[in-house]
Amino acid sequence: MLFSSACALPVLGDTPLANRLTKHLLAAGIIPEKAADDAAHVALTAAHGMDFLLTWNCTHINSRAIERQIERACADFGVECPVICTPTELMRM
To answer: Which pLDDT score is estimated for 3?
Structure first.
């Protein structure tokens, strides 16, 4: 695991599973091609078994309709989808 020098937080490394899941999210149209970075964020957090994905992106990631599709895609790849929420939503949990 890499660490960011700016704040000493771990940086999730790329994995073959994350790459395959990213490509699937894009190819299936779950996340649009123009938001490929968003697909990678989802795939990396799922592939690394993170519990939460915090995001302010309510267009391509934190949308109930899209989240259900992301959950199914993760299950198809044998990984659990992290809880996708905004920082504010996490503070209410």
So the answer is: 46
